[in-house]
Amino acid sequence: MEKPREWLREKSIAKKVLSNANVVFEVIDGRIPFETRNSVVEQLAKERNKKLYIIINKADLIPKDFGKKVKKEIEKEFPAVLFSAKSNLGIKNLNKIIDELSKEKKIIKIGVLGYPNVGKSSVINKLKGRKVATTSPKPGMTRGEQLIKLAPNVFLIDTPGIITLEFQEDLALKGSWIPEKLEQPIETALKLIEKISNHNKNSLKELYNIDPSGEPLDILEKIGYSLNFLKKGGEVDLDRTSKKVLWDWIKGNLKAYWM
Ligand SMILES: Nc1nc2c(ncn2[C@@H]2O[C@H](COP(=O)(O)OP(=O)(O)OP(=O)(O)O)[C@@H](O)[C@H]2O)c(=O)[nH]1
Ligand SMILES: [Mg+2]
Predict the structure, then answer these.
(1) Averaged pLDDT of the chain
(2) CATH assignment of 4-158, given 3.40.50.12780, 3.40.640.10, 3.40.50.300, 3.90.650.10?
(3) Looking at per-residue confidence, does 15 or 152 come out higher?
(4) Which ligand is nearest to the CA of 161?
(5) What's the whole-model pTM score?
């Protein structure tokens, strides 16, 4: 882990928010639902006996039947809602949950937690109906916590993304790490291409207009040629191409998903 100090700071924010909140909304990326479930968040919620709902966000980026399968699987453990901060998907269902929660207690404080960049701030803006929290494709946008009033007795708490103790490469594959800050962007991009090749090869073809066959390195090279990311001698700039692929994944331009 590159920044243990930051990691500790974020975990302490999560702990504080969890102590203040009566309910937790864990936001996950619907494209990689199980990789973005956050064990720290789920563990802390369990320890503190807080009700936890899983918001399967970015559902606009996945097929309906895949979303349904994910929801069914997650609901074996926690109540879940398919949601998109970019469309109107799930907004009614989530509002209904919030309404019901607000009847249970005088004041309801919902901690919105999860990995960086899964869309926590965007979900809050969608619920509020306007921009109250800052969002960005750049992981690590939200730095401190922010209390947002949704109704006279309902509050949402926006939080910085929480990362568990894991390698930067794994975080980058979750879209939770800035590609420029990777020590080995090429290796990471190759891992991502391998995953995408195994699940939704066509998304590579569609985005980069390439034949997505071959080893990950062949594919990365084809992408570089197609983008015309070449070095002076004419060979592919693998570093630059890798970062572009990783950003396309973060931004949802690469339409891949897996369980
Ligand atoms: N397609 C799509 N993109 C989304 C959705 N929700 C968020 N995004 C995008 O995902 C990126 C991250 O969104 P944020 O709301 O900033 O995510 P966050 O979890 O608050 O991120 P941090 O504050 O960095 O932890 C932005 O580029 C959003 O536009 C969604 O439902 N669908
Ligand atoms: Mg945020």
Answers:
(1) 94
(2) 3.40.50.300
(3) 152
(4) 1
(5) 0.96
